Amino acid sequence: MRFPNAISLKEIAALFATSLLPAILLAAPAFLFGNPKEGLWSFLLIAKISLGIALFCGLPAIYILNRQGLRNWASYAAVGIIVALGLCAYFILPNVRANGIGSGGAAYAAQITILMVLSVAVCTVYWLIVRPDKGR
Question: CB neighbours of 8 closer than 8 A, spacing ≥ 6?
Answer without folding.
Answer: 136
